Amino acid sequence: MGNPDQPFLILTAICDASARPAAITVGHGDAFERAFTASAAQPTEGVDLVELPIAPAAFAALRKHLQIPGDQVTVYDIFPLSPALDASFRGIAGQFLAAEALWALEEQGMLSGVPFTVQFDVPKGWDKDPKKLHERLVAEKALDLTAAAIETFKAIEGEWEKASSAA
């Protein structure tokens, strides 16, 4: 377990499942650079990247809503996780956080009514039901963040937003 006052950062990549791997990789490099720049002045426990591929039609609806260029095949965000979370569970935690963002947009009607399904990469023995996943992640202390870790993340998120809007 790391320092509880230092968040572990998860860089999520919602990807067009039909995109060429090379295009995704270029996007990952740019996103990592923004994440490292955003977090450079803050103490963290590390950064992992987690992909959440979605169907091309769902990604097209996301692209339209976010007004992103047609050649962009990934949408990135950054989230904090507790350093107490076992490293083997970071992937599912990141996928779940990215999916929650999509579900929120879908509930608000922002994805033009295009349905999307999420294929989670769950650890062996975990239930794929979103409510059960949420309960399990809470039980695993995924979001048990101290006040100091939350403040650190807020500073990083502010820098992330600046770097992302400049990109």
**Overall 3D shape:** globular
The amount of helix comes to 40-55%
Q: Biggest sheet, open or closed, and with what strands and sense? A: 3 strands, mixed
The strand line-up of the biggest sheet is 2-1-3
**What is the terminal-to-terminal distance?**
34 Å
Strand content: 15-25%
pLDDT < 50 runs, ≥5 residues: none
Structural class: alpha+beta
SS summary, helix count: 5
- Give the integer mean of the pLDDT values: 91
- Following the backbone from N to C, one meets helices and strands in this order, namely EHEHEHHH
Layout of SSEs?
Elements: E1 8-16, H1 21-39, E2 46-54, H2 56-66, E3 74-81, H3 90-107, H4 130-139, H5 147-166
Parallel strand pairs: 1-2
Antiparallel strand pairs: 1-3
Helix pairs in contact: 1-5
Your description of this structure?
This protein is an alpha+beta fold. Helix 1 packs across helix 5. A 3-stranded mixed beta sheet has the order 2-1-3, with helices on both faces. The N and C termini lie far apart (34 Å). Strand 1, helix 1 and strand 2 form a beta-alpha-beta unit. The chain is 47% helix and 16% strand.
Short account of what is shown:
It is built from 5 helices and 3 strands, in the order βαβαβααα.
Summarize this structure as a short list of keywords or feature phrases.
167 residues; alpha+beta; three-stranded mixed beta sheet; 5 helices
